[in-house]
Amino acid sequence: MTTSLDGVPVVTVNTVVVGTGSAGFCAADRLWELGQTDLVMVADKVNAGSSRNAGSDKQTYYKLTLSGGDGDSVREMAETLYSGGAMDGDNALAEAALSARGFLRLCDLGVPFPQNRYGEFIGYKTDHDPRRRATSVGPYTSRSMVEQLEKKVHRNGTRIYDECRVVDVIVSEGAVVGLLVLRTDVPHDGAESPFLLFRCTNIVYATGGPAGMYATRVFPNGQWGASGAAYRAGVHGKNLTEWQFGLASTHPRWNVSGTYMQVIPTFVSTDADGGDEKEFLTEAIPSYGQLMSLVFLKGYQWPFDIRKALDGSSLIDLLVYRETVLRGRRVFLDFRRNPVQPEFDPSALSPEAYEYLDRAGVLFGTPIERLRRMNEPAYQFYLGKNPYVDLETTMLEVDVCAQHNNGGLVVDAWWQSNIQGFFPVGEAGGAHGVYRPGGAALNSGQVGATRAAQFIAARRTFDPPSFEAAAPVLDAAAALVEAASARAASGVPDNTGDLLREVQVLMSAKAGPVRSAESIQEALVQVHAWLSTYESTVSADASSRRSINRTFLVRDILTSAYVYLSAMADYVAHGGRSRGSVLYTDPSGSIPHGLTELPDVFRFTLDGGALDDEVQETSWVPADGFVPVVPRAADDPAGEPVFRWRPRRPIPEDDDFFENVWREFREHGNIH
Q1: Per the confidence metrics, is the pTM higher than 0.85?
Q2: Does the pLDDT at position 31 exceed 90?
Q3: Per 3-state DSSP, what percentage of the chain is helix, strand, and coil (rounded to 5)?
Q4: Three-class SS of 521-542
Q5: Gap between the Cα atoms of 321 and 248, Å rounded
Q6: Dihedral (CA of 185, 188, 192, 193) sign
Q7: Got the DSSP string for 400-442?
Q8: Phi and psi of 2, rounded to 5°?
Q9: Facing residues of 330 across strands?
Q10: CA 587, CA 594: separation in Å to the nearest integer?
């Protein structure tokens, strides 16, 4: 049903699914299959986002073992996920229990996961994986998932509102009542309102991670995230400090994992103009065999892991970071020549690397010859991208990039947040811990979407509540645009693009894979200044849909950056040290092997699992049991993020006696 509020269309519906990636489409399809067809989907761009446009050499899906004679169980997989640290046990158990269901559903929809002639879905080991639970359909596993799920949603007839920027989540008395979006295909200076309101009982928030915070990122163009709106509405954050970084090409953006590293290319750095070319890994790794073996290991130890930074494969990431960030140089992979010496000498490799390359039949030639023998599609991939890169003739520029946020918006066992009716799923939801097996994110998105749909269909099918809270939210958004447009009309230059770039560069420089208490505080002071004065300084051209769109996008990114930086400052104040994919500078810590000439920014002390049993939660607004890390004035326009540390929820030990579970299932479906 569509009505209006002050000239703004209002769509009344039970559930709004925000985001058209694999998690969003899964949620919409599951709701429809469960009989809850009163739903719509909303996207800023249907064809954008990480699920559809991101991948790697062999993009992985992680699920319960479904082949061979190796033992596995739901409990064992849950324990693997839980062992990553700071992960809640009920989320781990659900992700394990529903992994086969979600995976086989994708197979039935047409995702071509490989199986042998007897129907076993063959697996392989991925990072942080004790079994062979991983599988893949190639570089674009998640794209294949999205495409098949999207076809199903279209067959269902679910309506999709495209080109809608999230402005605000509308909450009243601790529950969702609606969503305000900006229609980016409607001119702001025309007769039609560019705003659109959704009055709803539930929001499934599948907006992806807040990728727009970082300049150096492998997230595809068009993946921005919309977490800021959730924080402003009172949704809590969880484990926000836990990002995953890794080596990726920058033009185009793509993870250089798997075969790209296993064929052992040469790492080269140049000055900003492409001159003064040199191999730089040898400065810290003089051993020819060790250098080649560490590069090889980056293939399946791809994410930067601080535990492997002293003398393991993640030393490579730090050496690249030194070149690009500390020295201001550019780094390239050269597949045309072997490292150190012209002739490839496999006898110097570690036994692990030698055996792998021997079984692949590539103990010869140059990296490009090995790549094309081992994985021709990996070579062809760059030929088909924009910009076009021929690895036989051209070096590939790379950097250590933000790749995935393991933290996010808080979720319970049904992926509902602390706000009733608000369900963050996929990367937007903070279901992961510090470490996670490769491919666990794709499984988590399907599981979270399924759990949210089950809960909504069983417990939240009632009509939307009162909508009085919408009017002040709409008025505030209109006032922001009016003030920004008036500044532009008075001659103040449009500053939305500049501010967007500035916050991204700041976050990559001060809050990336290498951080310190000082760098975090410097960034926090600057972001706080931008955010607290935003409404009085932003200037946007009313005749430009892009400019008005960026007015709300930049506000969202500044909000997210402010909350995330505050969480990082609180983590350090809580005694947090280096863990996961982040080095926190510790003046009394150790310097990575061979890097004694580096400044103290590279000194660190491992966390050693000290905080594995705790979860950090963050709130934009005051909340019971939360405390501030940096007290702000009561009238501070930027608000005051507050925090609490709680024990992580253990893996549940439910009664698994069949008759008892069956009785409970008959009575209430075991959804409670």
Answers
A1: yes
A2: yes
A3: 35, 20, 45
A4: HHHHHHHHHHHHCHHHHCCCCC
A5: 12
A6: positive
A7: EEEEEES-EE---TTS--SSBTEEE-GGGB----S---TTHHH
A8: -120, 125
A9: 270
A10: 17
Q: What is the pLDDT of residues 220-268, one digit of tens each?
A: 988 999 999 999 999 999 999 999 999 999 999 999 999 999 999 999 9
Residue 114, phi then psi, degrees to nearest 5: -70, 140
Distance CA 193, CA 506 (A): 35
Return the sign of the alpha-carbon dihedral for residues 382, 291, 214, 223. Answer: positive
Q: In Å, how far are 13, 238, 376, 585, 640 from 234, measured between CA atoms?
A: 22, 13, 49, 32, 12
Structure tokens at 8: 């703004």
pLDDT digits (tens, 9 = 90+) for 391-436: 999 999 999 999 999 999 999 999 999 999 999 999 999 999 999 9
pLDDT for 634 beyond 70: no
Chain position carrying tokens 């490989």: 114
Identify the structural domains of the chain with CATH numbers, from first to last.
Answer: 2-239+403-459 (3.50.50.60), 244-402 (no CATH), 470-611 (1.20.58.100)
Residue 86 in 3-state DSSP? coil
> In this predicted model, what pLDDT tens digit does every residue of 469-526 receive, in sequence order?
999 999 999 999 999 999 999 999 999 999 999 999 999 999 999 999 999 999 999 9
Which of 33, 52, 51 lies closest to 157 in space, CA to CA? 33
Q: Which residues contact 212 (CB under 8 A, 6 or more apart)?
A: 223, 224, 225, 500, 504, 553, 556, 557, 560
Residue 490: CB atoms within 10 A of its CB come to 8
Contact at 8 Å (CB) between 243 and 402?
A: yes
Q: Tell the residue number behind the tokens 């309506």, with chain if given.
A: 159
d(CA 177, CA 197): 10
Q: Average pLDDT, stretch 138-156?
A: 96
* Token pair in block for residue 589: 């810590």
* Angstrom distance (rounded) from CA 368 to CA 378: 10
The reported pLDDT for the residue numbered 174 is: 95
183-199 per-position pLDDT tens digit = 999 887 677 899 999 99
3-class SS at 509?
Answer: helix
| CA pair distance 670, 97, nearest whole angstrom | 14
